[in-house]
Amino acid sequence: MECPHCHSQVTTHAKHCKRCGGVIPSSQHLLEECGLTEPSPTASPTKPSAPSPARPATRYRFARLGDRFLAFALDIALLFGLFAIVDAWAFMRFGAFDGTELQLTIASLVIVVTLNAAVLFLYACLLEAACGATLGKVLVGIRVVRTKECNALSACALRNVLKIIDGLGFYLVGAAVASCSEVRQRIGDICAHTAVIEDRFGIPARVAAVVLWVATIAGAVWTVPTICSTNHPIPTRYLSRVVVRIGIKGNSAYLRIGDFTLDVHS
After folding, report:
1. For labelling alongside 177, which of 58, 68, 161, 163 has CA 20 to 30 A away?
2. Alpha-carbon torsion angle 235, 239, 243, 244, nearest 10
3. Mapped to the 3 state alphabet, what secondary structure does 159-207 carry?
């Protein structure tokens, strides 16, 4: 690990530099643990090692909360498009639509939840495990790294599952914890031993991310009305009870869930 002041080698958890006396930030060791810098050589107990020549240090910074929120918003917009396509297909296939009322069965809701969870896992967990970044993170220029040796897929899955807790209060919990952390880790990052850093992606990666993001949103805008215009429901043998009704009656729209009814008058 390098001293951020004089760039001489110091031990991993040193508090002060022996050469210049500068204070070493307590989070500096994450540079080495993340594999972004070479481990510092072990000093000989009998013969002091000669000072290493000054050289440019590897520069990287932990991602700002604003950048992480922007990447999250971009990912949510893309996922909303994917969910809209999947949900429209499932509701029209396993529900019923008579022109004024959409009837959702238990089967359609179970299928929607399952497909949405699969889309979320494939997008967030697999992309972060394989590339370290989702499309939103690539566009903003941040990456997820592990702070200790662990399975990449399990770490990314854990940090994404714990978004349920970090997202409480419109993500106030995650923002508060990250603000108090020296390395800006939310609860999911702390438990999964991950951190989010700033990174520079190449132009091809950024162009590909922009194309895929725009294509997904545009595809959802075009595909969803097309799916909803066709009504070919598949009768289900089990879980065929209608539990949700959404429709229009006169100048008002209504939502019925069991015995609960919500009317919205225009």
Report:
1. 58
2. -50
3. HHHCHHHHCHHHHHHHHHHHHHCCCCCCHHHHHHCEEEEECCCCHHHHH
The rounded distance, in Å, linking the Cα atoms of 153 and 151 is 6
3 state DSSP class of 226: helix
Comparing CA positions, the residue from 160, 167, 161, 159 lying closest to residue 192 is 159
- pLDDT tens by residue, 107-119: 999 999 999 999 9
Instruction: Quote the CA–CA distance of 58 and 43 in Å, as a whole number.
Output: 21
pTM value is 0.74
Radius of gyration of the chain (CA): 25
Q: Where are the domains of the chain?
A: 1-58, 65-95+107-234
Across the chain, the runs of DSSP E, i.e. the strands, are 96-97, 101-105, 142-146, 194-198, 242-249, 252-257, 260-265
How many angstroms from the chain centroid is the CA of residue 226?
A: 29
What is the C-alpha separation between 33 and 106, in angstroms, rounded?
A: 48
Question: Hey, what amino acid is at 162?
Answer: L
pLDDT in tens, 173-199: 999 999 998 888 999 999 999 999 999
At 214, list the tokens.
């725009």
